[in-house]
Amino acid sequence: MFILNSSDPVPLYKQLYTQLREHILSGKLPANTRLPSVRQMAVELSASCNTVDGAYQELYAEGYIYSRPRSGYFVSPLDHEVAPHSLSGKKGENNLVQPYQSHFAYDFHPAHLDPESFPTELWRKCLTEGLRRNSREFSHYGDLQGSWGLRCSIHSYLEKSRGVTCDPDQIIVSAGLHQGLEIIAHLLQGQHTTVAVENPGYHLPRTVFQNHGYTICPVPVGIGGIELDQLKAGSATIAYVTPSHQLPLGYVMPVANRLALIEWAESGGRFIIEDDYDSELRYQGNPIPSLQGLRPTGNIIYSGTFSKILSPELRLSYLVLPYSLLARYRQLYRDYNSSVSLVEQRAMECFMEQGHWERHIRRMRTVYKKKHDMLLRSVETHFGRRAVVIGQGAGLHVVIRLPETPYSEAEIIDKAAQKGIRLLRFSDFHATGHPEAVTLVLGFGGLVGSEIERGIALLSHIC
Ligand SMILES: Cc1ncc(COP(=O)(O)O)c(C=O)c1O
After folding, report:
1. Which residues line the pocket of ligand 1, CB cutoff 6 A?
2. For residue 460, how far is its CA from the centre of ligand 1 (angstroms)?
3. pTM of the predicted structure, to 2 decimals
4. Looking at residue 419, what is its pLDDT?
5. Which spans in 158-202 are helix H?
6. Domains (ranges, CATH) in the chain?
7. Phi and psi dihedrals of 356, rounded to 5?
């Protein structure tokens, strides 16, 4: 049934993953079908068990299959009505304060990057190269949506690495998520009034949409991501989600829920904002493909950033707008100019074009995996059973719950500060309600290994 081609540059496990995924999505492999055991499939394909296991693990991580103890893997029930459609035919239809300085010895801020890792020399070279190559362009205003060359580089990267299907035409280079959300809030104003946000979740979308007069509808998050029943019960017609790495809990939304969310959007002219902020940083298996790729023609606005891998100081991010919004965007913004410096855009284009971006992602994944593992080991050593770890395996932070601590969140944060430890308030991620148990967000990106170990040891004494 499946054919693996060893002369194809695509790894064998990926070939098998893709074929199995297609069979599942098309219904050729019906729900609850038992997959052959790893060994059996390996024999059938004359492949190694590692190849089959790699494919199964990836399908499992994305929710295409589930496992039953001692029985193996089974196909997850999916709604085939809303399985992925291709982009063909749609294209072109719409005519187209004080600078921050940490005074803390142990700063567990979840958005801090490794202080040694910015590729200064390479960036300098790319800046120079960008200036040299395009010097004539700097005499006039650039394209509203961002430089074409950078959009083409982002497009290739998204297609290859994030499973996003779009045209460079749909990409808008923006100066950070807040600007992307401002654009979205503006575009959807009038027809939409209520935005669902994950609870707990990132505070920024709440603020931006509130500033634009929208009503915010916080929806609880479970291990499958935003709770769909509660979303459907509410009146929101826009949902902001972080499906590949929920902030802050780290959950991955399984494919069945992704399809159901897409169906929710499609059935009522609603919109999904997919914030794919740090999916490059996954330490077990491969990055989870985007939700946008499941329905490229759907009402999904995709948002990505260079802040997590390269630097938040660059203020470089991007949106992928569905064609249904592109005409309105161009009409509303016809007199505007891009707010991202063309010099930085050209440097980023050069950085991507010359392969530095992909190499840098691989390097940073290794750097952060070590820190991530060190954090988990330290928590295990110093907290033992007192801490329940949540959402590990990706990103720049891990969350721990402390069900037995006699102290409140405020007391722990105060005592931690006295010891030189900075913690963010987990309760600030909540739009409403409170966590069931004291919960700590432990960012590890900005700390070196020995600081992680010492910081966690100190923290364990005050919790
Ligand atoms: C959920 C989420 N999305 C996006 C971002 C990145 O935003 P920006 O591109 O503005 O740096 C962050 C940064 O911490 C984040 O936590």
Report:
1. 111, 176-178, 202, 242, 247, 275, 277, 305, 307, 312, 317
2. 29
3. 0.85
4. 92
5. 177-188
6. 12-78 (1.10.10.10), 118-354 (3.40.640.10), 359-462 (3.90.1150.10)
7. -65, -35
